[in-house]
Amino acid sequence: MLVVPPKPINTITITIMLAFTFFLLFFSGFFKFPSVSPSLPPFHQSSSFTLPSTNTSSQPFTDLLSSFRKWDLQVGCAKFREKTNGVSLNQSKVVSLQQFGGDSECKGFKLNHVSVLVKGWTWIPDNLDNLYSCPCGLSCLWTKSNVLADKPDALMFETSTPPIQRRVGEPLRAYMDLEAGRRRSGREDIYISYHAEDDVQSTYAGSLFHNGRNYYVSNTKSSDILVYWSSSRCLSQRNELAKKLLGLLPHHSFGKCLNNVGGLDMALSFFPECEKDANAKPKWWDHLHCAMSHYKFVLAIENTFTESYVTEKLYYALDSGAVPIYFGAPNVMDFVPPHSIIDGRKFKSVEELASYVKAVANDPVAYAEYHAWRRCGVMGNYAKTRAVSLDTLPCRLCEAVSKKGGRNARS
């Protein structure tokens, strides 16, 4: 039998075929390569607000109140209100916040009193337990005690899953998930999340997210160390972004990630006035706000850049009297006061962002304008953000339960 030797393979032909196959797979989305750095859309700074001066020498400052006085003389609240009049409260194309209150909300109530028994939780604070006098004459008992609520109208679940079935005459099942993924349990009658499109919205802006803190706010800002950052969940994308930006700015990092202050729990050694209780062992959250207040800026990077997912990382910075440098929800401006944060994703590069931060840090008037919303009472959508926070969740959940009829609601 004649054996025919195989023909030699044309390497050029094979190379072309492989390249063509790779080309098809890549553009079909089969292959996805991780981005070297998070993309930063082009920066569009509104010219109506006071920008750092480029015509005069820098004016480093440490006294926050003196910067306010300069801003009062050069700008003032009247001009600031004029600037913000033309700014849309909802700047994105989505509905970011639910409505709460008003006469229209009082229609459809079936119960005048509602009791909610909290069954499964991890972080829901105990001092949320209370008997609330809610709008529209509704009273609401929110409790973790099955003695005080022995026949509740609703059961509230935060970590555990609600029962599979519910019969008429049994409590309604409320389920809350404030994580970015927003996964319903599939067993709830009322779903609570951070997003406005769900049954009941709960933002992270409430004061109950940070109980037991030292709320001392420093009037003196560091002039040489500009940025505070603290993160102990070292996600690769967040770490990479923080490392690039903080490498361009003088900073203190107090958490496990990129720590540069000599170890954990070092804030009290820097700022002993932040100690909450000299007789108690300090916890990192005791002095969080106080420590932040000594810096002009606080870097706040969310775990994920998801629509409407604006967490306590941003609100802690606002409450401390610092200016947040924020990376996160694309519609973040719907949740915060006008001209109160620096949205990092609106810059085309971290280098441009760092240059802007340095310029603001050395311009007392431009820096003070980031605090004007608080001093002039220009809240924008922030009032709504606070109105639908965890602080008001008991009343708003009780309203939803009342409109469904509580135990009498059909399955």
UniProtKB/TrEMBL annotation:
Subcellular locations according to the entry: Golgi apparatus, Golgi stack membrane
Top EC class of this enzyme: transferase
GO CC terms of this entry: Golgi cisterna membrane
Predominant location category: Golgi
Residues spanning the signal sequence: none
GO molecular function, one term: alpha-(1->3)-fucosyltransferase activity
UniProt keyword Membrane present: yes
Segments forming domain Fucosyltransferase C-terminal: 224-405
Transmembrane segments: 12-31
Pathway assigned to this chain's UniProt record: Protein modification; protein glycosylation
Classification via InterPro entries: Alpha-1_3/4-FUT_pln, Glyco_tran_10_C, Glyco_trans_10, GT10-like_C_sf
Keyword tags: Glycosyltransferase, Golgi apparatus, Membrane, Transferase, Transmembrane, Transmembrane helix
Membrane topology (UniProt): Single-pass type II membrane protein
Record EC number: 2.4.1.-
Domain of life: Eukaryota
Keyword Transferase attached: yes
Family membership noted in the UniProt record: Belongs to the glycosyltransferase 10 family.
Protein name: Fucosyltransferase
